[in-house]
Amino acid sequence: MQIHRSGSVLLTGAVAVALAVTALPAAAQAAPSTTAVISEVYGGGGNSGATLTRDFVELANAGSAPFEVGGLSVQYLPGSPSAGSQWQVSELSGSIAPGGRYLVAQAAGTGGTVALPTADATGTVAMAAGSGTVALVSGTAPLTCKSAADCAADTRIVDLVGYGSAVVREGGGPVPGASATASVARAASLADTDDNAADLAAGAPTPVNAKGETSGGGQEPEEPGPTEPGDVRIHDIQGTTRVSPLDGTSVTGVPGVVTGVRASGSRGFWIQDTAPDGDPRTGEGLFVYTGSTAPAVKIGDAVLVSGKVAEYYPGTGTQSLTQITAPRFTVLSSGNALPAPVVLDARSVPGRYVPSAGGGAIDALPLDPSRYALDLYEALEGSRVEFADTRVTGATTAYDEIWVTVKPRENPTRRGGTLYASYEDQNTGRLKVMSLDPARPVPTANVGDVVKGRTTGVLDYASYGGFNVQATELGTVVDKNLRREVTRKQKKNELAVATYNVENLDARDDQAKFDTLAEGVAVNLSSPDIVSLEEIQDDNGAVNDGTTGSEATLKRFADAIVAKGGPRYAWRYISPENNKDGGEPGGNIRNVFLYNPERVSFTDRAGGDATTPVRAVDTWKGVELSASPGRINPESPAWDNSRKPLVGEFVFRGRPVFVIGNHFASKGGDQPLHGRYQEPTRSSETKRIQQAAEVNTFVAALLKADRSARVITLGDINDFEFSPTMKALTKNGALKPLITTLPSSDRYSYVFDGNSQTLDHILTSPGIRRPDYDVVHINAEFADQASDHDPQVVRVKVGGGFWH
User: Fold this and answer.
1) CA distance linking residue 157 with residue 89, whole number of Å
2) pLDDT tens track for 48-96
3) Burial class (CB in 10 A: 0-12, 13-18, 19+), 355
4) Residue 13 has pLDDT above 70, yes or no
5) Can you tell me the mean pLDDT for 695-706?
6) What is the average pLDDT score of the chain?
7) CB 3.0 to 4.6 Å from 374: which of 126, 354, 529, 794, for a disulfide?
8) Of 308, 323, 247, 252, which Cα lies nearest the Cα of 99?
9) Mean pLDDT of 484-507
């Protein structure tokens, strides 16, 4: 057992010894991939006797639509991993065309004479020639599995290949025969049965990149572009629903004028018909996907395009983007006038968001652009749009994107954002904006700023945020001087308790992050008596070596707070079991209490550890905790792979107060608001409702022992004030959510996709009367932020009927 406090570590309890039984490695049996697969692996590059100078991994797309690999990674593990072996990561970008290849170059050796073709991504991994495991992974965080069974259970793995004597593989055995002169490659059919030995075989290495180039510099000759218009127009391709009636069909000579060009990432260009059919449901714009090849067109070119119509779903649960893939095109003329853009404003965008399909897919529903905002945007997919004098509702991101609203009066917040008020009341005027010109990115803007003048661009759709405008002309950002808030200082007889999500803080972070977060505590929060922190990591962050303590992290944070004029805080926390609390692998995220010992004392009671539940104990002096700090029922399935609540007993001016720090399960896995399934399923909500019920049960036990017990429950609940999670947390009046005491225009602590919303909460028991509560807006609305959450504070008077 470990109870951590500033300046000391207390160790008690017995040490349990477990006996491990070694078993034969099981085969990894994830679902076979019907899209991206690992098509070839070669680890002999640069070795003695090799021809090629570098190792490589080749990917292929067995599907009928482009496969986006941005945000994915290729990872390598030695064939016989030791305790210290780590997965090595190579990040990817771009996409793979249907039937196409994608080449990842790895480390070079001193041998070999033939270079690889131009790689689509480059890593530095020195792969073994004879044995190893390669995985295609959704995300860039290193895998942690080192057995076939554990890797089979990791849902991030898209495909996996073990070769030689690799322990981690799919199927009954790895692929034999890899060497300095032989790779292992998948059959031409790209079939994936999840049996590596059946699906791949050894042979001479044949790397191919996204352009179809081989190591000899060759490339398959391209067919010539069309010379005459065909019978199909863009509105025929787009049709009257979200899915093209020509999906999977080859088309020839589709005419249009180029309205936008994307030369990086998922490369391609947009075309629009200059002779629309007059039906508002059938779109006149379309994206032409050129894969890794930069398109040789410019805005204003009149073109004829041939290729295959495909519906590309950019993410799980998203709507599709209609496009032409594997294109051949001919430029007929240049400098042509562009079609007039459609004006988006409060009059043209409907007030209803999207039709319902009872939770099913809306793909086949006829579009009704006069009634539903998402139907309007779908009908304008790929077309030119325009808006003017829009308010910024989501600050500029690291990807040079902002969110604006074309409806300035739609659910405005006090500081210029757009409030997310309920599941039924979506904000229809929100759109993400980015620039198509890399030389003129979206300027820095905060919530409430105004993009003055006209913004024009092409309406696109992506997995992050849904419909967005790829701007060819940007308005000018007008700074509205949004300022960070500073809450008032608590009075002598007021206990001030705050919550702050500090976004994966660990001792390896830059000092600037510590300093900015510390200023938030010392200055903006006016040095509360108690601060419940979420997302404190262990001392070496994502390094996955078994470290679980956070002493160095907290000392740096405490020192930084003092340097900013704050008090010398002490702290309490319980270290999680290694990799058992979710969050970033190896980071061992946890909740922590900071407290000012000059104002408040902590009641230490031994017995709390990572797995022992804390109990409410009814004594003659009143209710007490069985352990302080302690954890609420940590072995409950509600907390599997999730942060456990931290409970502590404090004393202020002779009165006990119980504080519960929370960080509930994230919303990861929920279907998007803008997606194809309506209404969207909130699958992650089930876990949070279970967690809320556990906390409510514990608070009820405290109140049963003493109905006037002072309980403050706070933290990152990861859900809204109107959610079922909040109903479960406040069941039977055990707790009151203080966010509901604020004016509706101030009920937010987080901004996501241009929606100002509440994920962080402070709740109080009935024994606390007339609390003074404040959400202190210092992060979520700003492009420059130390965390993506705003902190909150509650001040409670002792005496005078405010606190019995």
Assistant:
1) 13
2) 888 888 999 999 998 888 888 988 999 999 988 877 788 999 999 889 9
3) middle
4) no
5) 97
6) 91
7) 354
8) 308
9) 97
Whether 504 and 539 have beta carbons less than 8 Å apart is answered as no
- At 4, is the pLDDT very low, low, confident or very high (cuts 50, 70, 90)? very low
Find all residues with CB under 8 Å of 112, minimum gap 6, and list them: 45, 46, 47, 50, 51, 52, 53, 54
Q: Which residue has the tokens 């994966």?
A: 504
**404-416 pLDDT, tens per residue?**
999 999 999 999 9
pLDDT of 692 reads: 98
Average pLDDT over residues 505-515: 96
Q: How many CB atoms lie within 10 A of CB 506?
A: 25
How many angstroms separate the CA atoms of 551 and 549, rounded? 6
Would strands 384-394 and 342-343 be described as parallel, antiparallel, or unpaired?
A: parallel
- Residue 250 contacts residue 307 (beta carbons within 8 Å): yes
**Residue-level pLDDT at 28:** 39
510, amino acid identity: D
Q: Is 404 helix (H, G, I), strand (E, B) or coil?
A: strand
DSSP 451-519: EEEEEEEEEEEETTTEEEEEEEE--EEE--------PPPPPTTEEEEEEEEEEEE-TTS-HHHHHHHHH
Spatial neighbors of 208 by CB under 8 A, at least 6 apart, are 58, 101, 103, 117, 214
Contact (CB, 8 A) for 646 and 590: yes
The set of residues, in sequence order, having a beta carbon less than 8 Å from that of 111 and lying 6+ positions away, is 46, 47, 48, 49, 50, 53, 180
Tell me: pLDDT of 25 over 60: no
Predicted pLDDT of residue 5: 36
Cα–Cα distances in Å, from 113 out to 43, 54, 178?
Answer: 15, 10, 19
Residues 6+ positions from 19 with CB-CB distance below 8 Å: none
Q: What is the C-alpha separation between 275 and 569, in angstroms, rounded?
A: 69
d(CA 542, CA 727): 35
By the 8 A CB rule, do 533 and 590 touch?
A: no
Q: For 320-345, give the DSSP string.
A: PEEEEEEEEEEEEESSPPPPPPEE-S
pTM of the model: 0.77
Which band of pLDDT confidence, cut at 50, 70 and 90, is reported for residue 526? very high
- CA angle 443/518/647 to nearest 5° reads 120
Beta-bridge partners for 452: 476
Confidence class for position 631, pLDDT limits 50, 70, 90:
very high
Contact 501, 716 (CB under 8 A): yes
Contact predicate 710/658, CB 8 Å: yes
Longest dimension (CA), the chain: 93
Paired with 185 in beta bridges are 40, 201
661 DSSP 8-state letter: E
Is residue 405 within 8 Å of residue 484, measured between CB atoms? no
363-390 residue pLDDT tens: 999 999 999 999 999 999 999 999 999 9
- Give the phi and the psi of residue 302 in degrees, each rounded to 5: -90, 125
* Tokens 């959610």 found at: 723
Distance CA 146, CA 587 (A): 18
Percentage of residues in the chain having pLDDT higher than 70: 94
Determine the pLDDT at residue 216.
Answer: 57
The whole-angstrom separation of Cα 256 and Cα 274 is 7
